């Protein structure tokens, strides 16, 4: 009982550290989208042992007969702490997603908003395997039930705050799943947990890292630690984008700078943006200042992959035609 109480106190003490879903905030959900439909769905996840919700955006012409044979690029979005799969839709993310397609920054695609629990950090903990929920269950469900491409360069993972941390970790440790990762205001920390402020140590203890923090678990979770030790081959072909505001109220921009320096030292290509005057997460016009950049980054990969596939198809057609041509 005492351990449970201390854990609860740690979580409550740290409740304000990551973005909270406070009442009274203006709903910025679009009344209607030009390019997408949106549905709130459910599926059974073996990894967490229960039915889990998720949101899915599909192109408006998804069900048209002419498109039934077309596979679409897919993006998985991971929300922040104390949030859920609807946060993206309600806080203006859907508006920017729709605009990105209208502006040609993103091609038509399937956009999935995961639900990773209130404070899971997208970690595998005990009987609840939150990372596996994303990397195994949700991805498999979407691939099976929608016309989602299974090609690595047609799949991306993105996230914000806690979700940014999860997106970076999953992309770094499962290099065959996603061709690109985009992360905003990510919870990224120093490699040595002993250097953390006391409140962060308490938070980590409440999440199951132990008190003192178990360094082995820390190194497997923190994107900086992973990026520093991951085989170069796993990261060289991964397209990496991340940003943070210089006025992030939790100082996450400092951890993101460490990640930038780590990748730079290892000569791993990436795009890092420190947004001067920018705040944390959905504050300070986050969605309008950052999402257009990450969507354009991911969209460029999708377009190049589609162009390469088309070129390969044209080449095959020409070779087949040459074979049939009279000698």
What are the key terms here?
327 residues, Rossmann fold, eight-stranded mixed β-sheet, two-stranded antiparallel ribbon, 41% helix, 12 helices, 10 strands, alpha/beta
How is the main sheet built? 8 strands, mixed
Widest beta sheet: strand line-up: 1-2-4-3-7-8-9-10
Q: Element order, helices and strands?
A: HEEEHHEEEHEHEHHHHEHEHH
Count the domains. Answer: 1
By CATH, the superfamily comes out as Alpha/Beta hydrolase fold, catalytic domain
Question: What is the overall number of helices?
Answer: 12
Indicate the mean pLDDT.
88
Q: Rg, please? A: 21 Å
Percent of residues in helical segments?
40-55%
Q: Spans with pLDDT under 50 lasting ≥5 residues?
A: 1-24
Q: What global shape is seen?
A: globular
Assign the CATH class.
Answer: Alpha Beta
* CATH-defined fold name: Rossmann fold
| Percentage of β-strand residues | 15-25%
Query: What's the total count of β strands?
Result: 10
Second CATH tier, the architecture: 3-Layer(aba) Sandwich
- Terminal Cα separation, in Å? 85 Å
Give me the secondary-structure category.
alpha/beta
What does this entry look like structurally?
By secondary structure, the protein is an alpha/beta fold. The chain has a single domain (27-322), classed as 3-Layer(aba) Sandwich (Rossmann fold). It has helices at residues 2-13, 87-90, 93-102, 130-145, 162-173, 198-206, 215-221, 223-229, 232-236, 252-265, 286-289, 291-324; strands at 36-45, 50-59, 74-78, 110-113, 124-125, 128-129, 155-160, 180-184, 239-245, 271-275. The strands form two sheets. Strands 1-2-4-3-7-8-9-10 form an eight-stranded mixed sheet, with helices on both faces. Strand 7 (155-160), helix 5 and strand 8 form a beta-alpha-beta unit. Helix 3 (93-102) packs parallel to helix 12 and helix 7 packs across helix 8 (223-229). The model is unreliable at 1-24 (pLDDT under 50).
């Amino acid at each position: 009982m005492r351990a449970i109480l201390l854990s609860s106190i740690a979580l409550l003490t740290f409740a304000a550290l990551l973005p909270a879903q406070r009442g009274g905030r203006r709903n910025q959900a679009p009344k209607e989208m030009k390019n997408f439909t949106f549905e709130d769905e459910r599926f059974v996840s073996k990894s967490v042992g229960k039915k889990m919700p998720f949101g899915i955006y599909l192109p408006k012409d998804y069900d048209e007969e002419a498109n039934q044979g077309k596979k679409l690029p897919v993006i998985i979005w991971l929300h922040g702490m104390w949030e859920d799969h609807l946060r993206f839709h309600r806080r203006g993310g859907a508006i920017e997603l729709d605009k990105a397609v209208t502006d040609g920054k993103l091609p038509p695609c399937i956009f999935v908003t995961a639900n990773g629990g209130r404070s899971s950090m997208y970690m595998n903990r005990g009987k609840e395997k939150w990372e596996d929920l994303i990397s195994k269950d949700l991805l498999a469900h979407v691939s099976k039930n929608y016309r989602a491409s299974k090609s690595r360069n047609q799949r991306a993972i993105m996230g914000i705050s806690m979700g940014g941390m999860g997106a970076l970790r999953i992309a770094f440790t499962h290099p065959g799943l996603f061709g690109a990762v985009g992360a905003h205001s990510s919870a990224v920390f120093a490699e040595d947990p002993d250097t953390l402020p006391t409140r962060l140590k308490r938070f980590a203890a409440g999440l199951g890292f132990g008190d003192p923090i178990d360094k082995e678990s820390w190194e497997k979770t923190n994107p900086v630690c992973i990026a520093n030790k991951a085989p170069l081959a796993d990261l060289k072909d991964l397209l990496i984008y991340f940003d943070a505001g210089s006025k992030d109220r939790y100082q996450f921009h400092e951890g993101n700078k460490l990640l930038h320096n780590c990748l730079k030292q290892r000569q791993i290509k990436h795009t890092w943006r420190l947004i001067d005057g920018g705040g944390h997460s959905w504050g300070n016009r986050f969605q309008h200042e950052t999402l257009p950049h990450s969507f354009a980054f991911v969209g460029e990969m999708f377009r190049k992959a589609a162009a390469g596939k088309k070129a390969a198809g044209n080449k095959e057609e020409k070779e087949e035609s040459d074979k049939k041509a009279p000698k």
